[in-house]
Amino acid sequence: MYCKCYTSAICGINGILVSVEVDIRNGLPCFQMVGGVACEVQEAKDRIRIALENSGYILPPKHITVNMSPADIKKEGTAFDLPIAAALLAAFGYIPEKNLDKYLLLGELSLDGRVKKTGNILPSVFVAKEKGLKIICPSEDLKETGWSDSVPVCGIDDVEELADILSDFGDHKEFSPISELNPYVDEEDDIDPFEGIYGNEKAKRGVILAAAGGHNIFMSGNGTDEKKKMAEAWVKLLPKLEKEEKTELLKMDSVMGEKISEPVKRRSFAINGSNLFGDYDLCKAHKGVLMIEEGELLKTGMITRIKEVYDNKNIKVKISDYTKQLPCSFDMAVGGRLCPCGNYPDKDNCNCTLKQVNKCISELNPFFKKEPAIWIHIYEPEFSCFLSENKEGKDAKLKIINARNKQYLRYGDKKTNGDLTDREISKYCVLNEETARKLNELLPEDFKISDYFKMLRVARTIADLDDLEEITFSCLKEAFSFTARGNNV
User: Fold this and answer.
1) 434: helix, strand or coil
2) Is the dihedral of CA 211, 215, 219, 220 positive or negative?
């Protein structure tokens, strides 16, 4: 007596098809489970036996072996109860085996035979779609999911309903996609990214460069609210997420227990230097912008955690009792003061001494000084800025998309200018002799090599925005004005 059915295991944010095989033989009565199963899955054998018996299905004393393949994938959670129960029912002859290969089963069983919700089923939906399977899952999970990407789904409440469906007696149970909303719907195109942001024209230009080239930004100044608005504008300027990227975000939300309540779009998450944050919060900035307000107040341990996630582009998050490794990549906008009054490098409004400025800059965490390629100063705008026309955001997004497409074509694999290594810069940011000579005259003698490479990355982005094949001296001059030294930092 052998039977097989299908379910899904979650590895990170991806679902993996799992075959649940049941073999029943004469011999010493036992119920053993193999195939890389966690403790809570091992415990399921007692839960499943009692749930089936309380539903009217008696399991004779036999030698029962349950194998979950592939064995090298860890099976965690309680969603495996339902597929094991279905395979047992078929192996003991209570239901026909022929229908099992049509479905992907998920669900936890209670002792009275009711099917309880498991959550996190969206990654399994994509597995079912790829394999051409229908899904049978707890009814409660349908409410939590809200969408199933055209995959037929049926929600059940107990073991008897499962047996009816698998025995072809469940025609009254409807298999249909969940379609409360379409998370792939694109956001509006006619929104001005800088709407409500007045003045700060150079800062807006810096944000456009960051969006076009994948650069990080340091924002100095007292305009805390303006800094946050600028970070939100940055997110709006980024190219739309492609379907694969939206799918990744959907899977992340499902794994973290979020319901799909609106179409997926790029996001930003703000960290206040005086407040605590967790790994779950960092995930909210994936594929978007992480805004760090008051970076000078952020504790060293928190900065170390941000650096670790930023460098590795993934994060380990504890969800319920399990630790999941999730993708987590973002651009950074770091806000901070460069002097006690916060107005430096605006020398017209800053009366701080050079000693005070140097002290503030030296106290900045090295990570915040190293990563940003673009430094901008943001101020509280005067009323006269409200009366002037905001021109910077018009057509900026189209230029950014064109610049990004140039970079994708040049480097491949969705790589941007901000991702270039020092060695790659020598290949893709070549300067002619005249431009190099002028640049040497422009740069101060103590200009750092690391800042030089940052400047070349930004200059390459300026050239791409202006549709230039070569980096000109004007590109370099503007790029220098956005470096820390160019901002007199």
Assistant:
1) helix
2) negative
DSSP string, 52-107: HHHTT----S-EEEEEEESTTS-B-SSTTHHHHHHHHHHHTTSS-GGGGGGEEE--
First to last CA, the chain: 77
Question: What pLDDT is stored for residue 143 in this prediction?
Answer: 77
* 19 to 66, 71, 145: CA distances (angstroms): 10, 10, 23
Sign of CA dihedral 248, 287, 234, 399: negative
Tokens, residue 11: 């590895």
Measure the CA dihedral 129/133/136/142, to 10°. 20
Domain covering 2-166: architecture = 2-Layer Sandwich (3.30)
Whole-angstrom Cα distance, residue 252 to residue 114?
28
Mean of pLDDT over the chain: 89
**Phi, psi at 222, each rounded to 5°:** -90, -10
CATH number of the domain at 201-481, out of 3.30.70.100, 3.40.109.10, 2.120.10.30, 3.40.50.300? 3.40.50.300
Nearest-angstrom CA–CA distance, 333 and 207: 10
How far apart are the C-alpha atoms of 465 and 114, rounded to whole Å? Answer: 60
Q: Taking the CA atoms of the chain, what radius of gyration do you get in angstroms?
A: 29
Top pLDDT among 248 and 392 is at 248
pLDDT range class, residue 181, cuts 50, 70, 90 = confident
How far is residue 16's CA from residue 2's CA, in Å, rounded to a whole number? 23
Q: What band does 322 get if pLDDT is binned at 50, 70 and 90?
A: confident
For the entire predicted model, the pTM comes to 0.88
Which burial class, exposed, middle or buried, applies to 398 when counting CB atoms under 10 A from its CB (0-12, 13-18, 19+)?
exposed
> Hey, which of 60-69, 168-177, 280-289, 478-487 has the most confident mean pLDDT?
60-69
